[in-house]
Design a protein that fits this description.
With about 700 residues, the chain is α+β, with helices and mostly antiparallel strands. It has four domains: about 20-165 and about 270-345 and about 625-685, no CATH class; about 175-260, Calcium-transporting ATPase, cytoplasmic transduction domain A; about 355-380 and about 505-605, HAD superfamily/HAD-like (Rossmann fold); about 385-500, Calcium-transporting ATPase, cytoplasmic domain N, CATH 3.40.1110. Helices cover about 50% and strands about 15% of the residues. The protein has 25 helices and 24 strands. Strands 12-24-23-22-13-20-21 form a seven-stranded mixed β-sheet, sandwiched between helices. It has a six-stranded antiparallel β-sheet with strand order 4-3-5-11-6-9, with no helix packed on it. Strands 14-19-18-17-16-15 form a six-stranded antiparallel β-sheet.
C-alpha cells in the first residue's frame, strides 16, 4: 500500500481521490494539506505564514484575558477570538479530517480536529448555556493548540524545503529551449521536442539541453554539475557532453544521444525524487504501527476519559480535558516521516557529490558493507596510460626521441599514442611530419621521414624482428617490475630510444582508502592485470591484499568466499567484465564513466570518476540508516512516554489539576516531535570524509 510522501500515512490507492502524477510516477495523499505541500510547497509556506499571523496575536490576547486581565464579559471576547482561530487557521484540520473520512484512512488531522473541537465546543456550550454546564472555559487551550501545531508544521516545512534544495538545484540546470538544425536552419524549439540523433547548436556560454556527442567545433566545457571539477575541460569532435554542462568560448554542434528523461541529469533528479517515498526494510514495522495508531489513540483517549470520570472522581470538565490531552499529544507523523526525512536528505547530499543510490534498499545495504573489492584499471587508476619514462639511445636527446615518437603517433587514437602526444604537448616539443604512416595492430606503427624508415614497436614485435635488446635487459626488467609497459623507437633497425608507460593512480584514491580504513572497512584489489603492476598500485594507495590475474569467474568465487565468512561485500568496477561481480556483491558500486552495463548493474553509481565517492557513499549509507533508527527510536519513545502521561500517569503526583495546562503542553510537544525528526535528519547535510 502506498504512503503519503509528506506525512508518511498509509493511503489505499484503490479508493484514494487525492493523487498527483509527476515525472511518470503517481503519488497518493491522505489530505489536501499534504497534496498542497507536495505540489506547491512555497504556496503552502506562504499560507502558513498568513495563518500564524492571525493565530499567534489572537491566541496571546486570549491568554491575557484568561489569566492576566479579565474584565467583565471577557469570556465573550475570548469566544469570538477563539472562533476565528478555530475556523480560519484551524480550518485545514477539518479539511484533512473530511479527506480522511472520504478516503477511509486515519491521519493526524483527525486527532487535532477532534481534540480542539471538543475543547472549543465545551467552552462555547458553557458560555452559551451556563445552566447546563459549569462555567469553565478552555478557549486558550483550543486556540493555542491550533497555533502551536501550525507553528510546528511551519518549522517542518522549512526544514523539508532545505532538504529538497539539492533536487531543485539539479532540475534548474536544464535550459527550456534548444537551437535545432532542421533543413539547414537553426530553429528554436522547446527541449521536450528535441529528438535523438538531431543536431543542436550550442552557443558560447549556453547550457547543453541534452546529452550528446560533438560533431563540429572545439571549445572548453564546464561539467562541474557532475564532475565537481571547477576547471573546464577541452572538448573536440567525438567527445561526449552532458545536459546541464556549460559551453565555453567556442560554438559547437552536437548530435543528441539522450533527451528528456533519459539524460543523465534527469535520471539523477528521478533517483533523488524517488528517495522521498523510499521505504527501507527498517520502516515496515513503523508503517504498520502508523496505520493503526490514530484509532488506537482515540480509543485510549476514550478509555482514559471514562476511567477518570467513572472511577477517578473527575468531573465532566476534567474528563473532557483528559480526552483532549491524549489525542493532542500523540504524534503518528513521527513514524511516517522517520524514513523519508532521513533518506531525502542523505540521498540529496550524496547527489550533490555525484553519488546515486539505486533501488529501495541500496542505502541499507551500503550501511552494512565491511569489505570492498575493487578493480584496478579505470577504478583505482586513471584508466589511461601516461608516458612516464624517456630513455634515449646514446647521442639522442630526450626531446628528439619524443619528437620522433609524437610525429609517428600523430594521427593514431591508440591510448599509448595519445599518451605520447600529451607528453609532447606538455613539454612543447614540435611534432615531426612523417609520410606513409601505417598502423600494425598489436605491434606498432611505421612511417618515413626524409626517406628514412622509422617505427614504434612494442617489445614482442621488436623481438620478432630481431632487434638487439641485450643492452636493454636491465632497463626492461626494471620497468616490468614496476608494472610498466614499454615500446621501442627505431630508425630502420637502429635503436633511437625506449618509451615506458604506466596507468597512474587516480587522484584521491589513497585518501579514500584511508577514510574507509577509519570506518572499519577493508579494501581488497582484484584485477586481471599482472602481479607487478597490481602490487605497484596497491603500495601507492595503501592496499594490503591483492589478487592479480583474476578472471571474472575468479572474482565471483572470491566474493562468495568472503560472504561465506560472514562478510558484507561491496564491489567497485567500471567495465563489462565487472558486471557479474557488481551483481553478485551485496552492493555493486559502478564508476559513472564506465560502461552502461556496469552502471545498470550497480546499486550505487558514482557519476564522477573519483574513488573518494566510494568512501562517501558507504559513510552516507551508514549514517542515514543510523538516523532512521534514531528517528524511529524517538517516535516510539516519545509516544511511549507521553501518551501514558496524557492518560493520567502524573495525576498521583500532581492531582487532576495537571489537566489545566497539559493540553497546551501536549500541543507544543506534538508540534515539535515531527520537526525534531526532520531536524535530526537534516544533520546529514554535513556528511563528509573529513
Amino acid at each position: 500500500m502506498p504512503t503519503d510522501p509528506v506525512c508518511g500515512m498509509f493511503v489505499d490507492e484503490r479508493t484514494a481521490e487525492l493523487t498527483l502524477a509527476r515525472e511518470n510516477r503517481t503519488y497518493y495523499f491522505c489530505s489536501t494539506t499534504c497534496l498542497r505541500e507536495f505540489s506547491a510547497p512555497e504556496h503552502q509556506l506562504a499560507r502558513l505564514r498568513r495563518q500564524l499571523a492571525v493565530g499567534w496575536p489572537l491566541s496571546i490576547v486570549i491568554l491575557v484575558l484568561s489569566y492576566i486581565y479579565s474584565p467583565p464579559g471577557w469570556p465573550w471576547a475570548a469566544f469570538a477570538l477563539a472562533a476565528v482561530v478555530q475556523f480560519y487557521p484551524g480550518l485545514q484540520f477539518y479539511h484533512g479530517t473530511y479527506d480522511a473520512i472520504r478516503n477511509r484512512v486515519w491521519n493526524m488531522d483527525v486527532l487535532i480536529a477532534v481534540g480542539t473541537t471538543m475543547a472549543f465546543a465545551y467552552s462555547a456550550t458553557a458560555l452559551l448555556l451556563p445552566s447546563r454546564l459549569p462555567p469553565a472555559y478552555y478557549f486558550d487551550a483550543s486556540s493555542l493548540i491550533v497555533t502551536l501545531i501550525l507553528t510546528g508544521n511551519y518549522l517542518e516545512h522549512l526544514t523539508r524545503e532545505k532538504a529538497r534544495g539539492s533536487l531543485r538545484k539539479l532540475k534548474e540546470q536544464l535550459p527550456t529551449t534548444a537551437l535545432v538544425l532542421r533543413d539547414d536552419r537553426e530553429v528554436e524549439v522547446p527541449v521536450s521536442e528535441v529528438r535523438v540523433q538531431e543536431r543542436v547548436r550550442i552557443r558560447p556560454g549556453a547550457r547543453f539541453p541534452t546529452d550528446g556527442v560533438i560533431v563540429d567545433g572545439r571549445s572548453t566545457v564546464n561539467e562541474a554539475i557532475l564532475t565537481g571539477e571547477s576547471l573546464p575541460s577541452d572538448k573536440k569532435p567525438g567527445d561526449p557532453v552532458i545536459a546541464g554542462a556549460i559551453n565555453g568560448e567556442g560554438p559547437l554542434t552536437v548530435e543528441t544521444t539522450k533527451v528528456g528523461s533519459d539524460t543523465l541529469l534527469a535520471q539523477i533528479g528521478q533517483l533523488v525524487a524517488e528517495a522521498e517515498t523510499s521505504r527501507v526494510p527498517l520502516q515496515q514495522l513503523a508503517d504498520r504501527i502508523a496505520a493503526r495508531f490514530v484509532p488506537f489513540v482515540i480509543g485510549l483517549a476514550a478509555v482514559a476519559s471514562l476511567g477518570w470520570f467513572l472511577l477517578g472522581g473527575a468531573g465532566f470538565t476534567i474528563a473532557l480535558l483528559v480526552f483532549v490531552s491524549v489525542v493532542i499529544i500523540a504524534c503518528p507523523c513521527a513514524f511516517g516521516i522517520a524514513t523519508p526525512a532521513a533518506i531525502v536528505v542523505g540521498t540529496g547530499r550524496a547527489a550533490e557529490e555525484g553519488i546515486l543510490f539505486k533501488g529501495r534498499d541500496s542505502l541499507e545495504r551500503a550501511s552494512r558493507i565491511d569489505v570492498v573489492l575493487s578493480d584496478k584499471t579505470g577504478t583505482l587508476t586513471r584508466g589511461e596510460p601516461s608516458l612516464t619514462d624517456l630513455l634515449p639511445a646514446p647521442g639522442v636527446t630526450p626531446a628528439r626521441l619524443l619528437s620522433f615518437a609524437a610525429g609517428l603517433e600523430r594521427e593514431s587514437e591508440h591510448p599509448l599514442a595519445r599518451a605520447v602526444r600529451e607528453r609532447a604537448r606538455q613539454e612543447k616539443v614540435a611534432q615531426l611530419v612523417f609520410q606513409d604512416v601505417t598502423v600494425e595492430a598489436g605491434r606498432g606503427i611505421r612511417g618515413a621521414l626524409d626517406g628514412r624508415p622509422f617505427s614504434v614497436l612494442n617489445g614482442s614485435a621488436a623481438r620478432e624482428e630481431g632487434v638487439d635488446l641485450a643492452s636493454l635487459v636491465e632497463e626492461t626488467r626494471r620497468l616490468e617490475a614496476e608494472g610498466k609497459t614499454w615500446s621501442l623507437v627505431l630508425e630502420g633497425d637502429r635503436l633511437v630510444g625506449l618509451l615506458a608507460f604506466s596507468d597512474e593512480v587516480a587522484p584521491g584514491v589513497a585518501e579514500a582508502i584511508s577514510a574507509l580504513g577509519r570506518d572499519g572497512i577493508s579494501v581488497v584489489m582484484v584485477t586481471g592485470d599482472h602481479e607487478a603492476a597490481a602490487r605497484r598500485v596497491a603500495q601507492q594507495v595503501g592496499i594490503r591484499e591483492v589478487h592479480a590475474a583474476m578472471t571474472p569467474q575468479g572474482k565471483l568465487a572470491l566474493i562468495q568466499q568472503l560472504r561465506d565468512r560472514g562478510k558484507h561485500v561491496g564491489y567497485v568496477g567500471d567495465g563489462i567484465n565487472d558486471a557479474p561481480a557488481l551483481a553478485a556483491a551485496d552492493l555493486g558500486i559502478a564508476i559513472g564513466t564506465g560502461t552502461d552495463v556496469a552502471q545498470e548493474t550497480g546499486g550505487v553509481i558514482l557519476v564522477r570518476s573519483d574513488f573518494r565517492g566510494v568512501a562517501l557513499a558507504l559513510r552516507t549509507g551508514r549514517r542515514t540508516v543510523n538516523k532512521i533508527r534514531g528517528n524511529l527510536t524517538w517516535a516510539v519513545g516519545y509516544n511511549a512516554v507521553l501518551l501514558p502521561v496524557a492518560a493520567g500517569a502524573l495525576v498521583p503526583l500532581f492531582g487532576l489539576g495537571v489537566y489545566n495546562f497539559l493540553p497546551m503542553v501536549g500541543a507544543l510537544a506534538m508540534a515539535l516531535s515531527s520537526t525534531s525528526v526532520v531536524l535530526n535528519s537534516l544533520s546529514l547535510r554535513w556528511v563528509s570524509l573529513h
